[in-house]
């Protein structure tokens, strides 16, 4: 589609905004990861996406896609044309076959609220603001991973707008190679407008935990986590969060959930109660409140940047070094955190590598190193500071863990854009050659190059 911006406005049902227009909104969870887009198109139907892509290509404008706006890198930002999926949030439920057809802009909390009406759940992000599109296409794990596996492994179909503007279906019967690529290769192949995902029976309430400990208790906390992991069930998940509390003091905090009754949850986490936390927030909560538990942290102002790490050794010496490095970081970025995520990995590891593009199926513990700051003078140094934290966090682990980029949705995306495919090769490993062939087929001009950009095969 060629023509003027005025023509584009007339042709779509959604909105088209330029800087200065009412409705022009660059807001993301992290202001650090925004760019001043020349045009923001907010589609309301799939045809709008097709027209936006054709217009961008006719004008030579780079493209980016924003889902929930929860990412901390510039992968969902551009100075060209930004497709903002915030209005693409419809959810349809096929109860008989337990399939959800969910538009890519729908966020975790909205999905929880809708699906629990049917006694069902999908694999969604731990944070309420995370959209299912980017979350699933990058792999997608969280509290339900132990029971149901990756969100990408639960995706059975997708409606995709290709670089040509063509709208296609991807499933086991239509374009199965494209479905394979979408299971982990992010936005490299088009704009996913709607996902078909497996739904699972879900009880109406779950047991949520929060234990706050003194820094002096860190040794027993680490030891207890290691003992607890030996008995961890698939429906149980915890995080160890190293952060400043709301009172400004440093604490190791255990957060998590058991998809169970209160009695079962209390029994599962009794060992952490026995340590004598200084503060406890545990309760049986409605399932549709799970992703809202971290909302107070999401509302903390300031720039934000995350870098992922993988570890396969979790002991006091390693955690203490991480604590010391974090203690230096918070002098410049006080609201920063290190988050160790202990989600059962058996389901992920059991899926054959050839099932999808996602290649991170080793049984690592995922760690998110998150910087949050308000002092603009720190901005030029934040990435280097976080990469140093990452080296410390994984420093005691195996060579494979140290060399890992970390979980793909947490990885250091500032080195993954169009300039090099080094990170893409590393992330997708043995799946990369096939992805290159599919890139040549579906996006040979690299229109979609904002997330671990894959080079087309020669």
From TrEMBL:
The keyword Oxidoreductase applies. Its cofactor is FAD. InterPro entries: BBE, FAD-bd_PCMH, FAD-bd_PCMH-like_sf, FAD-bd_PCMH_sub1, FAD-bd_PCMH_sub2, FAD-linked_Oxidoreductase, Oxid_FAD_bind_N. Signal peptide: none annotated. Keywords: FAD, Flavoprotein, Oxidoreductase. GO terms for molecular function: FAD binding; oxidoreductase activity. Transmembrane segments: none annotated. Gene3D superfamilies: 3.30.465.10, 3.40.462.20, Uridine Diphospho-n-acetylenolpyruvylglucosamine Reductase, domain 2 (3.30.43.10). Residues 32-202 form the FAD-binding PCMH-type domain. Belongs to the oxygen-dependent FAD-linked oxidoreductase family. This is FAD-binding PCMH-type domain-containing protein.
